[in-house]
Amino acid sequence: MEDLIYWLWFMGVEKLSIKQKNMLLEQFTSPEVIFSLSPEILSKTRIVDQKTVDYFCQIRTLEKAKHDLSYMKKNNIVLIPRCHPGFPESLLNLYMPPLGLYARGDLFLLNAPLSIGIIGSRNPTVAGEKYAKLFASSLSSRGVTIVSGLATGVDGKSHWSSVNELGSTIGVLGTGIDICYPRVNKKLFELMAEKALVISEFNLGEKPLPYHFPQRNRIISGLSQGILVIEARKKSGSLITVNHALEQGKNIYVIPGEICGTSWAGGNQLLKEGAKLVTEPNDILEDYIVFDQAEKKNNFNNQPSGLTMETPEEQLILDLIKKGYQTIDALVACSDLPVNRVNSVLTMMEIEEIILIKYGNIVLI
């Protein structure tokens, strides 16, 4: 993208808040146009005061942006401005959308079919760690992408349990993408940058400042269709993410915990307020994957009882269709096979006139 250097410059202007930058973009469309604004025009916008106008004129140089771009190329870092077609549409609808995302890894995960955010304590109990591993692993094995904040505790356990699975995982940082925080997650950080995805809206070199983490939480919820809360206190960063998710109209799931324990109190309170109680991953999946049973009996009764397939995978898919699972999402979820493999098997079955795919529903012939 030709104007990428201007995005790097604009995102790096330190004395403009993200709100002011969003307002400038609304008026002038692109960072390249903003770069060329005269002090007089900038003052007339009334978005910034005179002191900021003076500062703006002093830093009107692309040298740092060129240096950053060179560093990014050497370290496999890309910047996805929000005008880029690969920028997640769900983030464009946020109250304060990020200007862009620095990213390392598999960019396709930004637009994964189903993503679930998992959040919780940085110092979880044994039970909290267990649930994080179990739910992340199970959901990922069924094609769900896990989104979290790459912190210690529940975040880290969720990432570790999903990074090698089918759905993979996205880590949203509260620092520049060239900084691993906390350092204890260095190995996980590098593994995710290679096999999954790490993203940040913060510029290169930005440190883990306290206000960064509540700000990044809106991206975790923005990328997720639902948020799973595992072990959160009443006053915790996890509940900030939940508030963002509620404002965005997302589903909230909570694993119930010890009623006398303070570490579970935030989640238990969410249950009182109407969050969905979950005790197994299917409690989450059922909200997104349609298991259409409407024609189950007829389809089953109409099948030749002796029909068998050539491979175990094909037989598995056939058996699931007989049981009433009639969408690709449902077959992926229940077979634990990759989407491309399920599609391949279905194509062969359709060629052999075993099934008919009509309006997204799979019907046995």
How does this structure look, described?
This protein is α/β, with parallel strands linked by helices and 365 residues long. It is 45% helix and 13% strand. The strands form two sheets. It has a nine-stranded mixed beta sheet, sandwiched between helices. β10 (355-358) and β11 (361-364) form a beta hairpin. It starts with a helix and ends with a strand.
Quick structural overview:
This protein is of the alpha/beta class and 365 residues long.
Major β-sheet annotation? 9 strands, mixed
DSSP helix fraction? 40-55%
Which spans have pLDDT < 50 for at least 5 consecutive residues? 291-306
Radius of gyration: 24 Å
Number-wise, the strands total: 11
Q: Characterize the overall form.
A: globular
Number of helices: 18
- How much is the average pLDDT? 90
- How far from one another are the termini? 49 Å
Series of secondary-structure elements, N-terminal to C-terminal: HHHHHHEHEEHEHEHEHEHEHEHHHHHEE
